[in-house]
Amino acid sequence: MAAAAASSAKRALLPWARDAHHALARALQGCGGGGLRGALQMAGSRWSLLQCRWRSSLPQLDSADRSDEESGGEIDWDNLGFGLTPTDYMYVMRCSLEDGVFSRGELSRYGNIELSPSSGVINYGQGLFEGLKAYRTANQQGYMLFRPEENARRMQHGAERMCMPSPSVEQFVHAVKQTVLANRRWVPPQGKGALYIRPLLIGSGPILGLAPAPEYMFLIYAAPVGTYFKEGLAPINLVVEDSLHRAMPGGTGGVKTITNYAPVLKAQMDAKSKGFTDVLYLDAVHKTYLEEASSCNLFIVKDGVVATPATVGTILPGITRKSVIELARDRGYQVEERLVSIDDLIGADEVFCTGTAVVVAPVSSVTYQGHRYEFRTGQDTLSQTLHTTLTSIQMGLAEDKKGWTVAID
Ligand code: COI
Description:
alpha+beta, D-amino Acid Aminotransferase, Chain A, domain 1, D-amino Acid Aminotransferase, Chain A, domain 2, 3 domains, 8-stranded antiparallel β-sheet, binds 2-OXO-4-methylpentanoic acid, EC 2.6.1.42
């Protein structure tokens, strides 16, 4: 009976409300003998999204074909860095704290958004971001995403830490796909780079006293990118920072909140002014154990054993990090997730960084307390092998035995 009621409710729904129906159906499946009433209670806040209060001021777009120009204009595909090239469309979805769930999202022209001066994100930093990439396939006709569900789940985990509602995994992945299709002329030709996709989740509603914002916005924009560091694919040079810290136990280092990033700018700017590529942070308690760089995770290799700092709350659980661990193990390497001390680093044969933007970046030197330590780079290094293996899967050039890629047709 409960299932029949849900089915007739579905027929009555507008297309945008079908997501809500699916949420209800899931709740009904899980409701055991509680009947429709119990199921509706369980579905509770989800069902309330049918009463969607949002009437967007953003222009509505037809879902069939949104990429209205043929190619990426005058863009120089051979010299893409990690700068912001504005693309055509962004995706926006909203939610009130009262409803607790996101309802219909929509594409709009890429452009400025309106926020209250007292919005939670501006005043108290209530916000998260994600980063993932879409690649053009070898035949140049289709597009591939890499493990987008992982980004969705990481955002959900972060949202819980930051007291925000978050989109479902299905909503997140659907929105990412829509954003890529709408901006498909900006996906670089294969081998030239990727479309970097930046999902944001922000407390957009007004709040004065310190509390969760009353309204939330999930927004995705995208930009074509090449290599992250100015060195391109060449090895990078890091400096260890031993007075400023990125994260602390009990803090938010392990989630991708926007508030983790501005505090590293000072150390990063200082390092760049001295010619270093990026900064390596130490743990805030002992000032002995490596955490991560400003924008990526860290690995060391010693006598064929790979080690990376364990993600124990102060370190971002990178999706590239997780993938690289699996790929290295598949190749027979022992990979340890543990405390990695500065002495471990200094004695390493090889060091490399991983991240969505960074991919797999070899480290040629690390400077610590004025001493420069050098590491193996180039041919026959693990980082080079992992870079090739990973990017071949991401671009559809190697068989994806793990089911990591998601095609967008
Ligand atoms: C990413 O790798 O996607 C990141 O989020 C790092 C960012 C600082 C560019």
